[in-house]
Amino acid sequence: MIILALNAGSSSLKFAVCCTDSNTFPMEGIIEKIGTPDIFGVLKNNGEKLLLTLGGKDHQAAIQVVLATLFHELKQSGQSIEAIGHRVVHGADIFHSATLIDDSVIASIAQLSPLAPLHNPPTLEVIKAAIALYPSLPQVAIFDTAFHQSMPEKAFRYAVPDAWFENHKVRKYGFHGTSHSYVSAEAIRRFNLCPDTSNIVVAHLGNGASATAVRGGKSVDTTMGISPLDGLVMGTRSGTVDPSLHCYMKNEAGLSVEEVTDTLTKKSGMLALSETSSDMRDIWAKHDQGDSKAQMALEVYSYRLAKEVLALLAAFPSKIDALIFTGGIGENDKRVRARLLESLAWIGFEIDHELNQVGGDTKGQITKSNGPIAAVIETQEELEIALQTKALCQ
């Protein structure tokens, strides 16, 4: 099948045309800085780059350009898109697997938008625009939260009144499910781990970040909670803070709940700590120039990452088999990887600095062979979206 995988972020739209017979991408690309005057897009067609001309700034305008361009390019080769798969960040406990999109699914995604305010609304824009342009094509929602529905109750329950859980679904959900699913399965394959008993921690580190304990190919715990705000320190997101912070800032600074949440979501994290940028490359550059804020920010980031990874080990009945780095930071930032592995040396990780420098050997491994495996595996969220879409549409 020829499937279009769409991955809408808060300010970006990744897209890929996947030929699922060969798991190849004849066309793929990204539109970045959506919502700003600096919006731009690039399409790679069999290796050749094409700049996209964008007539608007929002996600709806972006998807219209993407679909029109892809339709034209595919028509030239006598091909056409047979189905469209959409990554959706929050599906709560409503959606446990890939789901064909209809009006009721759209309504549920909208209803869940307060739990993922940076992601669900732009995804809805993309879904509605795609349906309007291709009403006859099957369109499938792939939920980030679905992979984590295997978590046991002891991992996903909060210690709150039962009525909150029963009536308002207050619990941990977890995110980055398409990435954690793909990368953990790929680690099992590459390193010949037991599919039923392997213990893997996947660290998906990007502007948004989460780590997940994967036991026998299934999520058993993860760092993000009811929303993608919890857990690790991220680009503009605070990660875990004291739950009383909202009340405290209301009383002390006169801020509303919405204002505190907006700050924790869009103006915190590495941006707030470094007072420089949310981009790790910029922060490392300041760090190397001796900037104390950048140095402190990276100390906090590294410490919290090690702390959360170690906490996930409580989900395993025996030793960890592999720690996998993925995402833009996980795949490209050798110093972040080195700092974490040095913190975990006491449980057996022995970093190979030469392999870490180049992003790993042919399998991605960056540790020496006499301890647990640490490796870099490029996430393929668009491929995972396409494969799940194909499975539902066949």
UniProtKB/TrEMBL annotation:
Pathway: Metabolic intermediate biosynthesis; acetyl-CoA biosynthesis; acetyl-CoA from acetate: step 1/2
Keyword terms, alphabetized: ATP-binding, Cytoplasm, Kinase, Magnesium, Metal-binding, Nucleotide-binding, Transferase
GO MF, one annotated term: acetate kinase activity
Cofactor binding remark: Mg(2+). Can also accept Mn(2+).
Transmembrane segments: none
Name of the protein described by the UniProt record: Acetate kinase
Protein localization: Cytoplasm
Functional summary from the UniProt entry: Catalyzes the formation of acetyl phosphate from acetate and ATP. Can also catalyze the reverse reaction.
Major place of residence: cytoplasm
InterPro entries in the record: Ac/propionate_kinase, Aliphatic_acid_kin_short-chain, Aliphatic_acid_kinase_CS, ATPase_NBD
Active site: D144 (proton donor/acceptor)
Enzyme class, spelled out: transferase
EC number, UniProt record: 2.7.2.1
Residues binding Mg(2+): N7, E381
Subunit organization: Homodimer.
Binding site for ATP: K14, H204, L205, G206, N207, G208, D279, M280, R281, G328, I329, G330, E331, N332
Family matches, as PROSITE patterns: ACETATE_KINASE_1, ACETATE_KINASE_2
